[in-house]
Amino acid sequence: MLALFFVPLIIINTGIVTSPWILFMLYITSGLGMSGIGMGIMHDAIHGSYSKHKKLNKILGLTFNLIGANATVWKIQHNMLHHTYPNIEGADDDINQPFFLRFSPNTKRMKLHRFQHLYVWFFYCLSTISWITAKDFVKITRFKNMGFLNKRNEFKKELSMIIGWKLVYFSYALILPLIMVPQAAWIVILAFISMHLVTGFLISTVFQVAHIIPDAEFPMPDNKNTISGDWHTHQLATTSNFSPRSKVFSWLIGGLNYQVEHHLFPNICHVHYRDISVIVEETAREFGIPYHSKKTFVGAIIDHIKMLRFLGKKNVAGI
């Protein structure tokens, strides 16, 4: 995946590419590699599950910085908030979306949400463009106000790191190609954007179809600000697997088709999820706990569309 991302960019930066079509092809190929880095390398590494060696996990977690995002922001948003509070309105940052998207029945419905199952794909495509530009700055400021990054100078240090890594990324992914490629600047910029459209679509779709589905629950805290039941049952009730029998697909997306196992055991490398899933499913059935799984990725996407349509048409709290 690292080669799939960097080799096309190296070829682009040599200046030997003269055809716009080849330029687009190389950038899109790099986008596939970027998706692979996000799902198959940095995701496990930031969870501390890629390797038993902490230093190696930290180094590989920085591959997220290399593709224009920020590992620290992701760790807070994903590891701390999403994994602790999946599908809980106001706590799970993955369902805290802009006003034009409604990912929870506990979010206020607007008229434009009727069409979100149609236009959401456009915003999925733009998601990593948002990451490399504004999202990290917005998130890190919000997380500081929430009480994270409260050590002395920690916020300033992380902010400087974000700026520094983004300068590195834009230097080799866009600025150098603008200098080296014998094409109009707008063509190079469009090719660069096409890379992110591919990456954004793939990553957003894979992550969202595991939680925003009709079978998933969206619990709300009681008056004491607590969720009924235990943490493990909550993970099973709010999460779904998809395409569990495809080894190739599982390799391509870093085992994220086994979302149930990942949410139960985020500190275990994804290469073990296929074997673990058999035990988890049997145990869930034994104790009458829901175990959600779709046979195919297409089936999961269809369920996701159904849920988005439901959320767009209904103004109800809870499912």
UniProtKB/TrEMBL annotation:
It comes from the Bacteria. GO terms for biological process: lipid biosynthetic process. The chain crosses the membrane at residues 118-138, 159-179, 185-210. Signal peptide: none annotated. GO terms for cellular component: membrane. GO terms for molecular function: oxidoreductase activity, acting on paired donors, with oxidation of a pair of donors resulting in the reduction of molecular oxygen to two molecules of water. CDD domains: Delta6-FADS-like (cd03506). It holds the Pfam family FA_desaturase. Keywords: Membrane, Transmembrane, Transmembrane helix. Residues 20-294 form the Fatty acid desaturase domain. The keyword Membrane applies. This is Acyl-CoA desaturase.
